[in-house]
Amino acid sequence: TQPASLRHFLADDDLTPAEQAEILDLAADLKADPYGAKPLAGPVSVATIYDKPTLRTQSSFAAGIAELGGFPMQVDGKLAGIGVRESVPDVARVIGRQFGMIVWRTYEQAKIEELAAYAGVPVVNALTDDYHPCQLLADLLTLREHKGELAGLTAAFLGDAACNMGNSWALAGASAGINVRFGAPEGYFPDSDILDRAAKIAEQTGGSVKVDHDPAAVATGADVVITDTWVSMGKEDEAAAREAVFSPYAVTEDLLGLADPDAIVLHCLPAYRGKEIAAEVLDGPQSVVWDEAENRRHAQKAVLSWLYRQAQNVRP
Ligand code: NVA
């Protein structure tokens, strides 16, 4: 149905380390001149579909696609009845003929992989249960702005590392040559398939990925401290049990005090002050979460421009 060489961005390791670096460079250029480049002029229409709640993602994709000269259209996944009224492959074959690219936030990774297999145009993962790769490009762009060269930095990810953000930090962090350490309770690390993939990538880049149950050991000396909600979208029923098990991993001022004195703090948001992160930390001088949120737009503009250019090259 489509050339094997058509590129998508469904998981962080769909990009090689060199491609990730190229996209981060492009994102920095686009940030420096947000209205300059118009690679989607025409305009190229881009479908964005959200099956889970969204603030940053829907606004940054809409604004970013417009800045690139494209036309962002939010397709209502419920009205369309994706996988209910029509199968995912049928939806893919229809919308792939209307739009130049498709952006989807949904639950199962297998569904976005199915969409990509039939769409005939690039598909971008705007968060699934398994990965949040656009967020990671924004995180890495933010880290680069504050710390320069990414390779060799130490990142401490605390809390629920068994979610999309933990998985994406393992893969994208390893690609960037970062030493990624996860501090989480038993059962809440990225699964072994992800850790194996990340370890293979780290062998090429000089990064590393380690897991530890001791939050203090993980935070000590880190260049960047990262956390995420303890209750990811779709896990609301487990909220009470999760709060009990994750509380030692909260990013408090004391825990942050163990990191490098110039460490920055990242959080993909929404944040729950007093739960995974103390208000004093989120609102404090080391937090760069608003830069991080802005960088979603620049990073996504870069990945969309890059994928669109690749797709033009593979068209018959
Ligand atoms: N792990 C979180 C990320 C939110 C952007 C979730 O999936 O809800």
From TrEMBL:
EC number: 2.1.3.3
Pathway(s) served: Amino-acid biosynthesis; L-arginine biosynthesis; L-arginine from L-ornithine and carbamoyl phosphate: step 1/3
Domain of life of the organism encoding this protein: Bacteria
InterPro entries membership: Asp/Orn_carbamoyltranf_P-bd, Asp/Orn_carbamoylTrfase, Asp/Orn_carbamoylTrfase_sf, Asp_carbamoyltransf_Asp/Orn-bd, Orn/put_carbamltrans, OTCase_ArgI
Domain Aspartate/ornithine carbamoyltransferase carbamoyl-P binding: 7-145
Cellular component terms (Gene Ontology): cytoplasm
Ligand binding (L-ornithine): N164, D228, S232, M233
Protein's cellular compartments: Cytoplasm
GO BP, sorted A to Z: citrulline biosynthetic process; L-arginine biosynthetic process via ornithine
Top-level EC class: transferase
The keyword DNA-binding is assigned to this record: no
Xref: Pfam families: OTCace, OTCace_N
Annotated signal peptide: none
Residue span, Aspartate/ornithine carbamoyltransferase Asp/Orn-binding domain: 152-307
Single Gene Ontology MF annotation: amino acid binding
Residues that coordinate or bind carbamoyl phosphate: R105, H132, P133, C134, Q135, C268, L269, R296
Keywords: Cytoplasm, Transferase
Catalytic activity: carbamoyl phosphate + L-ornithine = L-citrulline + phosphate + H(+)
NCBIfam families on file: orni_carb_tr (TIGR00658), PRK00779.1 (NF001986)
Family: Belongs to the aspartate/ornithine carbamoyltransferase superfamily. OTCase family.
Protein name: Ornithine carbamoyltransferase
Organism of origin: Microlunatus soli
